[in-house]
């Protein structure tokens, strides 16, 4: 089915289902907001809120949720202090302790280069949902999920709840080892209107966002919003565009005064020329601005013949630094329907149905294979397709001092990957292929894989108010996940193997407990404890080129990753001062180390069990509000994560035991100063990240760095026909720091060519009008 047909099919289907809802509940109802218990019951869970009695200029608040650990809430106002369209992952990193994010572009939208951690866990090891829809593994070329930047327009995110401890039982995920991110989109407004914003900036950046609000349409309370965003930006080095466009639609239908149904359809298209992978050697000898040769086909052609540009001969492997281009094209469709209904005053029901379709083309110019035309290189493209269908259902029942929660989740995932080769022309005899496609005439398929995954998950928990100031939570979840599949096609000429494996993997965890306590004393003081056992299902890897993952061998050689998360903390909150201290320990068992070997276009990942990993860490944050409108936030984070045993790979034993975790900094410092005066607001943010190791034996590392951003906003009022008009000026990398941002992979020892240079100073200005 074509992309256009998929778009129309999903869009019309969602509208057809939603259009029938008012008829099914057609009794006229008041459109006023329900009061009292009915309105409150629509929240995901009852919480003990620690209210921050101050301005929301920083707008990162913390509240104790006995089923989520200490939960941070990032509001819409915090997101708006950054340049419109900035990745929410970048905002989380800038404003919350223990979170690390790095990329190669100022918006943080390049999934190829992004690196995101919470307390040593990567994005693929967290539990992530959007309006209750599980997002699964949001990594690059993900086989079972969707990155948040591709799932929704940033301007439509209302708030984010982040748990840094053991996650939460009701966050449906098979990858969650620790930590949870729950994203919630804005509901349509009751009054007709809209938003329009325009951003201009460095490298020819041009971003447009528009949202229309229908307002309440009828006596039953129906309302909807439709939004569109388009970003077109040049790369800060090299050539090529990074183009993205997204469309979001959301409709809300009240069900009398007892509930509502929300339907949403999200579409995204990402067409990006990537930045080239670097190594420490390349950076030291050629600098950070080395990139793909595109659009200089002649230089790339000669390099494939062994004739390299000046300076490349100083590299140990100049051919692996000489690629014509690399790019990605993605299409994503996410449709969901959420029903929230109060069956009684004490019994509340929530149900989510969702469908996710994705397709992508990921290409590199490969100088190691000759085209049928005689050209010394080919265009190598990985074609992917993802289909996810799932449903969740949950009940909440309140009796006495107890609030009981129970829920189930089922998901089916179909995933395919095919590696195909396309011919490049002989120099001077035709237009070369580039990242724009089309890809409809391959001369060979190297291999193809296909997998199907079925997941079932159940949870049960009780939040118990022992005393007015003492609460406890206890519960567990059960998980069963089976993946079956493997190679569906193999060409030994290109893979070098007679056969590629097929098989199945099953991950089962019958009892994964979560327990926590929360004690509030002396009015403004709070102590809490949290424990959770988590299990991560086996996942298949799509990075193979020839050496597809040996699924038949995995059950005997490896075990599923398991974590035991312990957290204790203290919090003090007053009008002028907020203090938060967390201490945590994680017993991480059967840690799977991913070792990347081979060239960029022929990378092989090997999974090795490095035994247990010990994580010890602390996060501390202080927010002071000395004057009206002024808020200053400082935080420190420390983490010591060490591997448990030495590793033998290809007959070589590496002294990994006791070495620090690759990719995650041991120290982080963050500061944010925000001052609001009338309709003007100024925000300064600075982050320090210590060095990060890029090898498991810790003999290679990228240096630590400081990264600062500055933004200024002014809101104009009393403009005819406009509710507000706001101007925003933002400066990314204020002090023009040179640094390595994202890290795409790690070696057992020594250098690796999967580093991405961070963007230099970038300046953006935007106008936002609301009517």
Automatic annotation (TrEMBL):
Keywords: Cell outer membrane, Ion transport, Iron, Iron transport, Membrane, Receptor, Signal, TonB box, Transmembrane, Transmembrane beta strand, Transport. Residues 70-168 form the TonB-dependent receptor plug domain. Residues 1-19 form the signal peptide. Pfam families: Plug, TonB_dep_Rec_b-barrel. InterPro entries: Beta-barrel_TonB, Beta-barrel_TonB_sf, Plug_dom, Plug_dom_sf, TonB-dep_rcpt-like. It comes from the Bacteria. PROSITE patterns: TONB_DEPENDENT_REC_3. It is a multi-pass membrane protein. The keyword Iron applies. This is TonB-dependent receptor. Its main location: membrane. It is found in: Cell outer membrane. Residues 289-734 form the TonB-dependent receptor-like beta-barrel domain. It comes from Nguyenibacter vanlangensis. Belongs to the TonB-dependent receptor family.
């Amino acid at each position: 089915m074509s992309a256009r047909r998929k778009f129309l099919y999903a869009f019309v289907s969602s509208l057809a289902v939603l259009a029938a809802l008012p008829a099914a509940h057609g009794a006229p109802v008041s459109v006023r907001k329900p009061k009292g218990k009915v309105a409150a019951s629509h929240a995901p869970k009852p919480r003990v809120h620690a209210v921050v009695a101050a301005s929301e200029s920083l707008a990162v608040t913390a509240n104790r949720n006995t089923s989520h650990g200490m939960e941070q809430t990032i509001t819409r106002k915090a997101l708006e202090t950054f340049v419109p369209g900035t990745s929410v992952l970048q905002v989380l990193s800038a404003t919350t302790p223990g979170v690390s994010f790095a990329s190669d572009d100022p918006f943080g939208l390049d999934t190829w280069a992004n690196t995101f951690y919470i307390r040593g866990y990567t994005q693929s090891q967290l539990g992530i949902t959007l309006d209750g829809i599980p997002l699964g593994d949001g990594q690059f070329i993900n086989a079972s999920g969707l990155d948040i930047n591709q799932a929704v327009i940033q301007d439509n995110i209302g708030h984010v709840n982040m748990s840094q401890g053991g996650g939460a039982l009701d966050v449906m995920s098979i990858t969650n080892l620790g930590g949870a991110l729950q994203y919630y989109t804005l509901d349509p407004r009751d009054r007709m209107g809209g938003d329009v914003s325009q951003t201009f900036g460095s490298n020819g950046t041009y971003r447009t966002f528009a949202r229309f609000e229908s307002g309440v349409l009828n006596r039953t309370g129906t309302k909807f919003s439709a939004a569109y965003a388009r970003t077109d930006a040049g790369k800060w080095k090299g050539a090529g565009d990074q183009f993205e466009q997204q469309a979001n639609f959301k409709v809300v239908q009240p069900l009398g005064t007892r509930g509502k149904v929300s339907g949403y359809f999200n579409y995204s298209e990402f067409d990006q020329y990537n930045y080239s992978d670097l190594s420490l050697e390349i950076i030291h000898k050629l600098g950070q601005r080395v990139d793909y040769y595109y659009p200089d086909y002649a230089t790339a052609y000669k390099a494939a013949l062994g004739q390299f540009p000046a300076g490349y001969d100083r590299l140990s492997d100049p051919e692996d630094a000489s690629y014509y281009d690399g790019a990605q094209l993605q299409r994503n469709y996410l449709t969901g329907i959420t029903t929230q209904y109060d069956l009684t005053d004490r019994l509340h029901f929530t149900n989510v149905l969702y469908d996710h379709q994705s397709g992508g083309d990921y290409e590199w110019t490969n100088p190691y294979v000759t085209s049928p035309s005689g050209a010394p290189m080919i265009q190598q493209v990985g074609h992917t397709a993802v289909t996810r269908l799932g449903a969740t259902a949950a009940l909440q029942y309140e009796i006495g001092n107890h609030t009981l929660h129970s829920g189930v989740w089922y998901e089916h995932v179909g995933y395919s990957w095919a590696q195909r080769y396309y011919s490049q022309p002989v120099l001077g005899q035709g237009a070369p292929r580039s990242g724009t496609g089309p890809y409809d005439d391959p001369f060979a398929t190297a291999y193809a894989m296909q997998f199907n995954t079925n997941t079932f998950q159940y949870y049960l928990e009780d939040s118990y108010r022992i005393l007015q100031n003492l609460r406890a939570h206890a519960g567990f979840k059960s998980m069963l996940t089976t993946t079956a599949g493997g190679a569906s096609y193999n060409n030994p000429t290109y893979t070098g193997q007679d056969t590629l494996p097929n098989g199945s993997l099953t991950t089962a965890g019958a009892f994964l407990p979560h327990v926590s306590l929360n004690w509030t004393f002396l009015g403004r003081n709070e102590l809490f404890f949290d424990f959770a056992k988590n299990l991560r299902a086996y996942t298949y890897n799509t990075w193979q080129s020839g050496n597809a993952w040996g699924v038949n061998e995995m059950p005997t050689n490896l075990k599923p990753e398991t974590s035991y998360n312990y957290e204790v903390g203290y919090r003090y909150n007053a009008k002028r001062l907020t203090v938060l201290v967390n201490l945590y320990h994680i017993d991480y068992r059967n840690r799977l180390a991913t070792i990347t070997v081979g060239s960029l276009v022929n990378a092989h990942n090997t999974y090795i069990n490095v035994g247990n990993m010990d994580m010890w860490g602390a996060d501390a944050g202080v927010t002071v509000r000395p004057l009206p409108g002024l808020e200053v936030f400082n935080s420190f984070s420390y983490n010591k994560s060490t591997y448990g045993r030495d590793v033998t790979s290809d007959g070589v034993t590496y002294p990994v035991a006791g070495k620090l975790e690759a990719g995650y900094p041991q120290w982080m410092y963050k500061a944010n100063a925000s001052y609001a005066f009338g309709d003007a607001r100024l925000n300064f943010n600075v982050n320090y990240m210590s060095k990060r190791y890029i090898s498991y034996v810790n003999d290679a590392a990228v240096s630590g760095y400081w990264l600062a951003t500055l933004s200024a906003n002014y809101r104009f009022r009393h403009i005819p026909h406009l509710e507000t008009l706001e101007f925003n000026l933002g400066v990314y990398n204020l002090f023009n720091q040179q640094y390595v941002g994202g890290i795409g992979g790690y070696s057992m020892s020594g250098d690796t060519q999967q580093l991405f240079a961070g963007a230099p100073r970038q300046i953006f200005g935007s106008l936002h009008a609301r009517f």
